[in-house]
Amino acid sequence: MSSKTALFVIAAAVLAFFYPNLFLWVRGDAQAFILGFIMLSMGMTLSAQDFKILLRRPFDIFIGACVQYTFMPLIAYAMVKFFDLPTGIAIGLLLVGTCPGGVSSNIMSYLANGDVAFSVGMTTASTLISPILTPLLMLVLSGESIEIDAVGMFKSILIVTLFPVIAGAVLNFLFAKKKAYMDAMQIMPAFSVLGLAFIVAGVTALCADKILTSGIAIFLLVALHNGLGYLSGYLMGVVLKMGIARRRTLAIEVGCQNAGLGTNLACRHFSAMPEAALATAVACVYHSISGTVLANIFAFCDRLKSSRKK
């Protein structure tokens, strides 16, 4: 996802803040349909080769998934306890931490000169196991302070994430060589960006009154959580003696979450706490921007190193 995409999402959020009535329809089933479409587009990019990666590199993928589903939830939990966060914001931050990797992380890994195959494998694996781990982690980490409908979350993730991804992969397997399908694939990313913008704008419209009171605090918390995720992923790559390309990919995969899924879960299961949805919506925008910036920094370091050798 390029910086222009992030700017487009920000523009949609600003428009929703000043004209909320334009986006109040993005809720409930409409929001779930949009997220399902985004995940369908992700599935349509998966080929048999991508699934072979999961079989050929099980150790790398396993380690990556363990780091993602350990560090990000625990960092979020530690921040909730350290800052003694209000329940709504705490739930939002925990949702961001327990969601799978973001769908744009593969592009960011490519821009960073990372290991793209590793990135695709991690995103695929974390998405496939998210119906189990996301509700389970939310139940463990926040079950004491608020009732968590783990079964309901499991069903929601199946409907808006796993089923669309599988359906997209099947479509790609059946029609990948068809010209009409290839033409459709050219415009799918643009519609996915539009869908993400609608999701963020919808939450902004619903939480417009909360942005002025809680927005800055939520932004700083999301930024800290995201930054610690990047750092944790990279350092674990160093500890595991991975090459530079894999370290970069692990950093991006761990730090960038599918906050769109978190937003849907917040709206559907924690509607009484609008701050939860606001936190996940802020993460949608911020992760897109920070991931792109980090990828560009990695690429700049490579260009700088290359120029010094000449």
UniProtKB/TrEMBL annotation:
<dbReference type="InterPro" id="IPR002657">
    <property type="entry name" value="BilAc:Na_symport/Acr3"/>
</dbReference>
<keyword id="KW-1133">Transmembrane helix</keyword>
<feature type="transmembrane region" description="Helical">
    <location>
        <begin position="85"/>
        <end position="104"/>
    </location>
</feature>
<protein>
    <submittedName>
        <fullName>Bile acid:sodium symporter family protein</fullName>
    </submittedName>
</protein>
<feature type="transmembrane region" description="Helical">
    <location>
        <begin position="7"/>
        <end position="26"/>
    </location>
</feature>
<dbReference type="InterPro" id="IPR038770">
    <property type="entry name" value="Na+/solute_symporter_sf"/>
</dbReference>
<feature type="transmembrane region" description="Helical">
    <location>
        <begin position="116"/>
        <end position="141"/>
    </location>
</feature>
<keyword id="KW-0812">Transmembrane</keyword>
<dbReference type="Pfam" id="PF01758">
    <property type="entry name" value="SBF"/>
</dbReference>
<feature type="transmembrane region" description="Helical">
    <location>
        <begin position="61"/>
        <end position="79"/>
    </location>
</feature>
<feature type="transmembrane region" description="Helical">
    <location>
        <begin position="212"/>
        <end position="240"/>
    </location>
</feature>
<dbReference type="InterPro" id="IPR004710">
    <property type="entry name" value="Bilac:Na_transpt"/>
</dbReference>
<keyword id="KW-0472">Membrane</keyword>
<feature type="transmembrane region" description="Helical">
    <location>
        <begin position="187"/>
        <end position="206"/>
    </location>
</feature>
<feature type="transmembrane region" description="Helical">
    <location>
        <begin position="32"/>
        <end position="49"/>
    </location>
</feature>
<feature type="transmembrane region" description="Helical">
    <location>
        <begin position="153"/>
        <end position="175"/>
    </location>
</feature>
